[in-house]
Specification:
With 338 residues, the chain is α/β, with parallel strands linked by helices. Helix content is 51%, strand content 13%. Bound molecules: hypoxanthine and zinc ion.
Length: 338
Amino acid sequence: MDTAVNPATLAAAIPKAELHIHIEGSLEPELIFALAQRNGVKLAYPDVQALREAYAFTNLQSFLDIYYAGASVLLHEADFHDMAWAYFLRAKADNVAHTEIFFDPQTHTARGVPMASVVRGLASACERAHGELGISSALILCFLRHLSEQDALDTLEAALPLREHFIGVGLDSSEVGHPPSKFSRVFARCRELGLRVVAHAGEEGPPEYIWEALDDLKAERIDHGVRSLEDPALVAELARRRTPLTVCPLSNLKLCVVKDLADHPMKRLLDAGLCATVNSDDPAYFGGYLNANFVRTVQALDLSREDVITLARNSFEASFVSDTRRQELMALLEAATG
Ligand code: HPA
Ligand code: ZN
């Protein structure tokens, strides 16, 4: 690509991997209302506009309350398929070549939705995206950390008959008061089963939670991790291990983790030599999909062409693809950047 192209335009145009997207967080208000009507579910908001106006969050919990309410319209396998397909179409428009998608089964099984409906609906959308859009993808099952470790163990057991459809596990929901060490046993079991392991840590929680995710859970990636910068020894360890951070700038802005995108730590993370990546987290709620996250971060922090290429390369390095697919993705990036 022409080296005169500005870094934000370049960021939007190049192939990238998205590694931190909660599929329930891709449910747009229009689809929430369409599914509510299809399934006869009553919502607490009269229309799309009223729901969208409620998206004024002050912290993680204020978002999670609305996010779980939105997910209540998902009942059948086709609903999960339709939600994921809508995300894949947006991902294609943003030049996402590979994506690793979080899902929260406990949000659905607690309402009586069978685990198989959740997993099969998502998995069929992943297959379709590969065939029709050329996007490779994988599913990562997240445990809700505000629930007990026993509930996570039971969820894992319920998902094991569908083991072929997901590659790993993660940890999400309300962070403060629910440290990674609460889930040491279930993560040990997951590792024994050959599942990849990641965990949200250091979004609102302290650097100690990131240490626990690394040392107790043996997390291979840290989701968010922006508070790592408060602990220089932790930054040095993340750099030494080359543990990727899946950072979500517009999420951090909407949930008041940062006051202004100009204060966002992304540039400091890159300058510290960490394998930081850009991701959308819950794009329907936070004001933008992957390219919006890239473009607004590049503009707010005046990131360079080299920073942009590093971020795209990091996304492929951090992904759980085969070596062959990683080489293919790196070659696509190379061809797009010259
Ligand atoms: N943090 C924790 N849990 C979540 C998030 C998040 O950003 N999005 C969906 N569940
Ligand atoms: Zn997240």
